[in-house]
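Q&A log
Question type: sequence-to-structure
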Amino acid sequence: MSADELPAPIELTKGDDDYPRLLKETLGAPRRLHVMGDANVLSLPQLAIVGSRQATPGGCETAFRFARHLAAAGFCITSGLALGIDAAAHRGALAANGATIAVLACGLDRIYPARHRGLALQIARGGAVVSEFDAGTPPTRERFPQRNRIISGLSIGTVVVEAGQRSGALITARCAGEQGREVFAVPGSIHNPTARGCHRLIRAGATLVESAGDIVEQLPSLLSGLAESVEQNMVPRAGVVTKRNKLADADLLTVMGWDPVSVDTIVARSGLTPEEVSSMLLILELEGCVEPLTGGKYQQREEGRS
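Response status: OK
Response body:
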């Protein structure tokens, strides 16, 4: 293998001992994981660091410093290899000679973004690049929300550094909350649009953190409470469907109607799986077409259908 050639991946199934326990015990855990690099790092205690692709230089510096500090403290840093905050987090972990995991929304032979192929190679040498998607699978928009549930599912907590109101990082934070994991958010300037998602998370109950030390201080109680939260998530669920294309997003809005509606109702009306519906709803929410309501219901927004 040449110096710039990516290593051959291996496959883990949910029945394998090496399949990461935390992820296995979340709802909708993938039946298979393709792993390029050291599969053993998947069992390390992980913290996810995610945020905007259009991050400010200050946001990237914060993500880098947080990741370097936490990696030096012995935690594996997990993120999505995206531009901006994700890449800064991976690089911070590498700077501390720590382990880091990149979770992709495409096949491992289709590194995305392509400019991060070199970064993926660095990660694979001491950590792992992971995907639930088979080789040749391209990155499409519905696959990113599916990818995000793996990032949060592998981790004991998720740290959001800079996120706009429609940032995909908010999907990762929501998944973390649904999985019983801690959500941390770094506040920013009220004039910074990429800080508004973090402020929204803080108003919703996320833990405000100003330094990596704030997270480390909370880890003892976080780790002790993890076993209980894992037990609460051990509910049988069908495997995640990775292909959709049965129903367009606009058609899903028609299925929803204008009254508040639950995911179960949409599933019954559409014939889609719960995972497919959840993925589509997350995309539609980011596009401003639907909004989540209390009680797990959704309602489409009139201004989103212009």
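Response note: DSSP finds twelve helices and twelve strands in the chain.
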